[in-house]
Each structure stands twice: as C-alpha cells, then as structure tokens.
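[worker-b] picked up task from shared queue
[worker-b] task type: protein-ligand structure
[worker-b] ligand name resolved to ISJ; SMILES cross-checked against name lookup, match
[worker-b] sequence length check passed
[worker-b] input payload:
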Amino acid sequence: MGMVKAEELSLESVKGKVYTLDSVREALIRQEDTIVFGLIERAKFLMNSRTYGREEIPGFAGSLAEFVVKNTEAVQAKVGRYNNPEENPFFPENLPPSLVPSYSFTQFLHPKAASININKSIWKIYFDELLPSFVASGDDGNYAQTAASDLSLLQAISRRIHYGKFVAEVKFRESAQQYESLIRAEDKEGLMKLLTFESVEETVRKRVEKKAMVFGQNVTLNNGDDKNVTYKVDPSVAANFYKNWIIPLTKDVQVEYLLHRLD
Ligand SMILES: C=C(O[C@@H]1C=C(C(=O)O)C=C[C@H]1O)C(=O)O
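[worker-b] inference finished, payload out:
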C-alpha cells in the first residue's frame, strides 16, 4: 500500500510532464496554497524597513533583501533550479552555472519563452504595493527571517505569473488557427480577449479568499462561534492581490509569449 511500482516510476520519467489546460490549471490551484501560506508567513514579522533600505551591508550596493535574494539565487542556480523552464530568477545577470547533472525537462515551450522575465516589475509591485497592504508597521529586528520569507513568497508569485507561458502554449495548441491570425496581426487586444476566461478568474479570486480564511484562521478549541474567528492575513487582501496583480500579470505573460510564438 502506498508504494509506487518501479515500472510506473520509470514510465513517468520517460514520458516527462504532460501539459494540458486542466493540468496547468491544477498547477495554478496548487500554487495558490503556496502563495497564501507565503503571505501568512511574511505577516508573522513586522514591516522591518531596514530589510529594504540601502547601505545595511558593507560593500554591497543594494538592500539586505536584495543581498539575500541574489546570493540565494546563486546557490540555487548551482544546484539546478533554473534548468527548470518553470523558474525565472530575479537577478539573471551573472548567475553561476549548474553543477549538477541536468534533468531532462519536457521541452514544451517555444524557445523564445526563455527571454520572457517580468521579475523586475514583480519585484517593484511586491515592495511598493503588496507588502504595505498586509504587513503591520514596526520593527522587530528579524531582518534575515523577513528577507527569507520575502524570498520564498517572491519566488512563488514569480512562478505563478510566469506559468502564463505554459497556459498560453496550451491554449495556442488547442486553437492554433485563431491564435495565428491574431499573432500575425500583432493584435494584443484580440489575443488578450481570446485567452481571457472571466468565470475562471472569478473562481480563482473566490477560492483564494476562502483559502486565506481556511489556512489563516486563528484556531482555538473553544470557539464554536464563527463570529469570533480572526485571520492572520485579511482574506480580501489576498483576493485583491490576485485580482489586481497576479491575474493581470499572468495574462500579460501569456500575450507576450504568444506574440513571439511564430518567430
Ligand atoms: C490562467 C488562465 O488564463 C487567464 C488568467 C487567469 C488567471 O490568471 O487565473 C484565469 C483565467 C484566464 O482569464 C486560464 O485560463 O486558466
């Protein structure tokens, strides 16, 4: 019971990952969990502005957060994180090569996908818009822990948004003719319209709000009365972050990817 048969394992690794509209949507749903937990973990610390100010680290021009992200990305690059086409670094400049034998990831995307990286915008939105919307002001001295939780949340958000490349490829393959004429006409608005599913977006927003309620509620044994439930992160903040930033940026990545799909 619970054992994976050897032949199933080898078959899986030969076939590689299969991307369909259902499977990419499943992946996005699972990533919601990671993002919601990431918000909860970051909310454990106060704003800790010194994490984001310059000149905290002698000889380093950026912030403490930048220092942690750059150096962690370098370590993770050495062990192959960015061999996976689902991962995009925040500081791709001067990343060291991987030292480990590379896994053969399914070649599903058009080669141009590798040049799409909107992490500079994600970085700015994260610090300017997201953090102030849910983190309590003040300083508790946990700068390293704060930067570590920023890093994992930033990586989760970036992975979700860049997953748009896979969503777009699946949609393109399902309706190649329709997409091709819009791509040839460089019709960004037409592409945006064709790839948009309003009802799916609404479901995503509602589910994210519910996840923030379920995962983030302060649990006690004696409050049978739901009115007393409090949350670690305001569920509407999570839903609005999805509505205003994550979903639109995922769609921007899709449009960007499609524009180069026939290159
Ligand atoms: C990701 C998709 O594409 C669009 C973006 C969505 C999102 O970011 O959640 C949801 C629906 C679509 O408008 C999708 O169709 O699943």
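[worker-b] attaching auto-annotations
[worker-b] Residues 98 and 151 are 20 Å apart (CA to CA).
[worker-b] releasing lock
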